[in-house]
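Long-time lurker, first post. I've been practising inverse folding by hand and with some scripts of my own, and I keep getting stuck on stretches where the structure tokens seem ambiguous. Below is the full token string for one chain I'm working on. Before anyone asks, I'm not after the true native sequence, just a reasonable design that respects the backbone. If someone could post their per-position residues I'd love to compare against what I wrote down in my notebook.
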């Protein structure tokens, strides 16, 4: 594929075959919000809220507002697979190396951190709502999160991006494919080429939180699944892309990441720290500076 023309549309069609159709119209109103709590910590205002993604489905989230007047760049921060959900990126629980929402807010970003279905406080069941995958439901929730960010007086809607680790890492890429408002993606330990994942056995992708069709329709086979991460990377080559791919990640094979990055655009940056499935401080600092270059100039 090329980075232009029908490439992005082709990738979207392939993803929809595996995930189900993307249901949102092109124009949407900002979601309704229920404010549950507000606190200030370290110069950042934390608002715990629910936002209405679609009929009767409220997404639990934290909204972090930095100090300072005017419109700020904004990031959607997506968490890994953890019972803490949104509390980990916000610095309220979990691993200190994954407190990227807190750190970005301290650097002047407005940050929204939603709970993924079945994690944190999000108890929704995408399949009861008619979705073919939780992956597609998450894309919808995250698009609606961008709708919320874009509606805020503190946010410049032309300067928005997404960041995530592991589960959040690939979901930040998925969101960018379906929403052009994502100008930059930071993905940490989030992907590899399909044939390099667990020796080419994609069983790990067909569960409740992901895409059941990968098993039921595509037989957990990289040769059959209608999209792959090299295609996503290439399709996003006109956006900012920062990839953290540790050398010793036991989930996403680093050589498969290198293979994907050969399809990336000139803006893309990849770092390969001598670490496991983690987002070390030096690499986070590089990622934040990269995002600032893309969104703050």
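-- Answer (accepted) --
I ran through it position by position. Result:
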């Amino acid at each position: 594929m090329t980075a232009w023309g029908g490439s992005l549309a082709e990738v979207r069609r392939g993803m929809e075959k595996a995930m189900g159709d993307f249901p949102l119209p092109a124009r949407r109103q900002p979601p309704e919000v229920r404010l549950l709590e507000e606190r200030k910590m370290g110069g950042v205002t934390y608002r715990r809220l629910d936002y209405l993604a679609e009929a009767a489905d409220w997404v639990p989230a934290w909204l972090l507002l930095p100090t300072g007047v005017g419109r700020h760049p904004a990031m959607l921060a997506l968490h890994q697979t953890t019972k803490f959900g949104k509390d980990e990126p916000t610095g309220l629980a979990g691993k200190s190396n994954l407190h990227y929402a807190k750190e970005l807010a301290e650097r002047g970003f407005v940050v929204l951190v939603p709970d993924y279905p079945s994690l944190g406080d999000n108890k929704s069941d995408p399949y009861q709502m008619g979705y073919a995958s939780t992956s597609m439901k998450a894309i919808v929730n995250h698009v609606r999160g961008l709708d919320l960010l874009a509606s805020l007086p503190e946010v410049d809607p032309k300067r928005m991006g997404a960041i995530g680790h592991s589960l959040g890492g690939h979901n930040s890429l998925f969101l960018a494919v379906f929403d052009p408002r994502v100008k930059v993606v930071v993905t940490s330990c989030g992907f590899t080429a399909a044939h390099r994942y667990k020796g080419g056995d994609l069983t790990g992708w067909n569960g409740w939180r992901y895409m059941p069709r990968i098993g039921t329709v595509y037989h957990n086979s990289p040769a059959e699944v209608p999209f792959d991460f090299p295609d996503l990377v290439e399709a996003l080559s006109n956006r900012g892309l920062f990839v953290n791919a540790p050398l010793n990640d036991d989930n996403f094979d680093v050589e498969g990441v290198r293979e994907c990055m050969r399809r990336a655009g000139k803006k893309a940056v990849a770092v390969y720290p001598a670490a496991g499935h983690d987002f070390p401080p030096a690499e986070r600092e590089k990622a934040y500076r990269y995002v600032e270059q893309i969104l703050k100039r």
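A couple of notes from the structure itself: The CA atoms of residues 184 and 240 lie 4 Å apart. The radius of gyration is 18 Å. Happy to go over any region you disagree with.
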